[in-house]
Amino acid sequence: MGHSDQPSAADSRLEMADEIDDAALARVMPMVPLGAAVLAGSAVALLVAGYLLVYILVFIPRGTVG
Questions:
Q1: Residue 39: per-residue pLDDT
Q2: Cα 18 to Cα 6: distance, rounded to the nearest angstrom
Q3: How many whole angstroms from its chain centre is CA 34?
Q4: Rounded to two decimals, what is the model's pTM?
Q5: Residues 6+ apart with CB under 8 A from 43
Q6: DSSP states of 2-45 as a string?
Q7: Interior CA angle at 28 toward 22 and 32, to 5°?
Q8: 9 within 8 A of 15, measured Cβ to Cβ
Q9: Tens digits of per-residue pLDDT, 5-45?
Q10: Alpha-carbon distance 48 to 42, whole Å?
């Protein structure tokens, strides 16, 4: 196997890690927990809505047991 004269993708500046500005990171970090809370809240709201939908459409029309 011969050595290729083509450059490696690792040599490309686009493939290297970005330089992170500390000031920009400090501005963005307070918003990260907000996004996670919105996602978790949306998931819980969908679960509660699904439970209530089943309760209203299935259990209420059946009436009482006994």
A1: 94
A2: 24
A3: 12
A4: 0.54
A5: none
A6: PPP-SPPGGGSGGGSPPPPPHHHHHHHGGGHHHHHHHHHHHHHH
A7: 130
A8: yes
A9: 777 666 665 555 678 888 888 888 888 888 889 999 999 99
A10: 10
